Amino acid sequence: MRPRRFIAPSAVPWLIGAAAYFFIPLIATFLFSLESNTTGKCCTLHSYGWVVHNGAFWHTIKISFLLSLETIAISLVIFVPTIYWVHLKVPKLRPVFAFMALVPFVVPPIVLVVGLLGLYKGTPSWFYAQPWGFLAAAYVILAFPYMFFSLDAGFRAIDVHTLTDASQSLGSSWPRTLLTVILPNIRAAALAGAFLALAIVMGEYTIASLSQFQTFPIFLQYTNETQAYPAAALTLLSFAITWAAMLSLLFVGRKRGARAGLMTGAR
Amino acid sequence: MAYLELRDLHRYFGDLRALDGVHVELEQGEFLSLLGPSGCGKTTALRLVAGFDRPDAGSIVVDGKDVTHTSPSKRDMGMVFQAYSLFPNMTAAQNVEFGLKIRGRHRTDRHKRVGELLELVGLGEAGNRYPHQLSGGMQQRVALARALAIEPRVLLLDEPLSALDAKVRVQLREEIRRIQLELGITTLYVTHDQEEALSISDHVAVMFGGRIEQMGSPAEMYSAPATPFVAEFIGTMNRLEATVVDGGSGAVEHGGVTLTLSAARGRQRGDRVLVLVRPETVELAAANGDAGANTLVGEVITQTFLGPVTRLKIVGVDADLIADVPTAKAAALPVGSRVNATLPAEGARLLELTDEPLPDIPEEPGPAGP
Questions:
Q1: Which of the residues B67, B85, B155 would you substitute to probe the A interface, choosing the one with the greatest number of A C-beta atoms within 10 Å?
Q2: pTM for this entry
Q3: What is the CATH T-level fold of the domain B238-352, as seen in this structure?
Q4: Nearest to B102 among A165, A172, A261 (CB)
Q5: pLDDT over 70 at B328, yes or no
Q6: Mutate which of B46, B70, B86, B87 to disrupt the A interface (most A C-beta within 10 Å)?
Q7: Where are the alpha helices (DSSP H) in B67-122?
Q8: Angle at A61 between CA A56 and CA A67, to 5 degrees
């Protein structure tokens, strides 16, 4: 029996092309970041030292990361029960939700922020003047399409009606059905939505800038305008941190999934 | 008072009358099958009993208590579904344990009960397997164990075997009956398979158009169908339209041939009747000379081998008939041969013939996938 090939030969050039498209800018940025900020000559880790010892870097990346987690948490709390209910009780409303989910794609962030600033004007300062209030609310809107389409695909992949009926006939309440039966079976979809929300919030500039909050993309932009070499190092570090955050989310999700027995092909 | 009562249930979906006055009474420990073609209302009735849907009129009473407006989670009804319904994120044992956890049973009790139930359904070794590691039949066994774990007041089964292959279906339906008798649990079973219903039930209710056409024991349903639909749906039936000629002797006329049937005695001359004759009661012989009493003449046009019997389709001048003959004798009546088909004087059943057209039985769709 011939050993099974993992990659078809015809796919190799395409993979090499894709890898080059992805890695060449990273390598170029890395090489640029190794040049000295004063002499412009290679090779020094001075720019990385500047980033790591910069308090503003840690402060802003912490804000952006916590905002990401807040956005993910709020989105899941709002959208999981809502989409579950739509699938279970009012499937006719699904196209309406799908249309609404497209709105954040259509409305540019600059228009969105002007509208939100007007809408939320007069709300308490703990909400309006804090990133955890105003920005999180805006980011939940931005994350809506990604969360909706990920979760919607997850709900479509399971037999929501039968699982719900089975759970209820055994005496389970609605919240218990959602938490113990439905949620574990849409975990992959929820994780996918969470990754996308994380990526969006970590890189969102327009709304944070116009509403005058100091988030990581604002710091990145400021560094880029003032110091070329540390900006390259900052770009790479932020890239690495975002990927590390995504991988840790994936790791946590997979670990729980494996413990609960949710494996590929479980359905 | 009956243990389970469905009192005059009505359910409408827009203009569609899904249930139109369904009334059922079932004693504790009895097994009732709701049998009918697709769209007859049998699953709607079951879902009303489970509490997943509410009737527009009528009530459901269990053990003297009206549960019509009780939520499904509080009804104590164990249910096995047509689609595979095990929770994919839980093992077989965890699935069975689910209802017991909700009821706050102690961990030791739970594990003991789960072990007993998995043994009962023949899956004592499969407790640690996930649903995707089980075959369809095994999944339905686990679903049955899960439904029984909560010691339900009524066990509801919604076509639980329809997604399984023929051999497993027969095996599992016998196990369902064995377990039901062993536990003495009141059971409502929905199926479109008449063989399944007749083989495992205490009572069968044939439904059509949202109504119960007839309810009775399997033997009654088979031997004494009350309506043309039941006659057609349960088993295979020859249907001959006839007119009563003499109520005293039981003579009826069909296509110019006079048949003498004891069921026609006492009828008024001129009454239009439907003569129902089971294929296995028709006697066939090669046509030699004159036909005797109660005999129709025809030609064999097809033979279908069914194992112990062979089914012959006969087209004649007088009528089209279906007859089952022992396979050993079928060779003597090949396709194309002329035969005398003698109808039984005693075994035939008569129904009033109305002007309503005889119902067509809609084809049952294939089983729903998971």
A1: B85
A2: 0.81
A3: OB fold (Dihydrolipoamide Acetyltransferase, E2P) (2.40.50)
A4: A172
A5: yes
A6: B87
A7: 92-102, 107-120
A8: 130
